[in-house]
Amino acid sequence: MATSLQIFRRIADALDRLSPPPIDAAVFAEETLAYIWQGRALGLCGMDDIGYLPLSLIKAVDRQKKMLLDNTRNFASGYAANNVLLWGTRGAGKSSLVKSVCAEVYQTCPQLCLIEIARSELASLPELLRLIDDSTRRCIVFCDDLSFEPSDDEYKSLKSVLDGSLMNVTGRVVFYATSNRRHLMTREMSENEVQTVIHHGELRDERLSLTDRFGLWVGFHRINQEDYLAILESYAAYFQLNWSLENEDNRAEALQWSRERGGLSGRVAWQYISDVAGRQKRSLRISQ
């Protein structure tokens, strides 16, 4: 008959098997630009290719580009920098700009790295920050397409981390996020929440409380037709496609493409040039 000690050992062994493996800091020590945080496994997966565009190909957002580039360079060099919220219209190139800026800065500051975290993994953010604290890298934690509904609890956890001791102690991490919303919380509140709020100002303050943790707000807006066509020309030249605006049929086709997709944007331009490249049996391989 098993003794109490044997039973406790079996229980401990079973719990060890259920627990996630320890974080491998050695993987993180490799000089790789980008990683994906796998929160459930508490591990990092290095990315050999993050599919970024050269900064010169990102058009119509010169002001936004400079703001993000300056902040990232300051951070990578060990100077003061802000958490950044890139907000605005969909397809404007927010996430593409983050990747391109990080790739640009990495060329001269290889201690920089970009760690992408899914919104669903935000609960494990404290574990990631502890890993960063054990490293010498300067890390941008990046969450794409971030927003919260009133029923979500994750925004409170993120708000606490952004303003809390974990990020302040390390000094080697900032948080970048993209969102289609300027305010990460929706305006709608559940009936119970409305009943518990005394003043309408409290509703506003709650919606703004997370966004206020981002010191730098970078706004993106719809581009005009001239910018759209300029983006197409730069893509065609870079990828050496047989396409030019001197051909009126090309111009008409490109504008028709945008109308069928409901508007002008960098994403629509990329989708159109991908179609052109496909018809010409060409790839859109980035020269690294």
Mean pLDDT: 81
The residue fraction in helices comes out at: 40-55%
Major β-sheet annotation: 7 strands, mixed
Write the H/E string, N to C. Answer: HHEEHEHEHEHHEHHEHHH
Q: Can you tell me the CATH topology of the largest domain?
A: Rossmann fold
Stretches where pLDDT falls below 50 for ≥5 residues? 18-23, 189-194
CATH architecture of the largest domain: 3-Layer(aba) Sandwich
Query: What is the spatial order of strands in the main beta sheet?
Result: 2-1-4-5-6-3-7
Topology of this protein?
Elements: H1 4-18, H2 25-29, E1 34-38, E2 43-47, H3 62-76, E3 84-88, H4 94-106, E4 112-116, H5 125-133, E5 138-143, H6 154-163, H7 165-170, E6 173-179, H8 191-196, H9 200-211, E7 216-220, H10 225-238, H11 248-260, H12 266-279
Parallel strand pairs: 1-4, 3-6, 3-7, 4-5, 5-6
Antiparallel strand pairs: 1-2
Written overview of the protein:
The protein has helices spanning 4-18, 25-29, 62-76, 94-106, 125-133, 154-163, 165-170, 191-196, 200-211, 225-238, 248-260, 266-279, and strands spanning 34-38, 43-47, 84-88, 112-116, 138-143, 173-179, 216-220. With 288 residues, it is an alpha/beta fold. The protein folds into two domains: 25-220, Rossmann fold (3-Layer(aba) Sandwich), CATH 3.40.50.300; 225-279. It starts with a helix and ends in a 9-residue tail after the last helix. Residues 18-23 and 189-194 have low confidence and may be disordered.
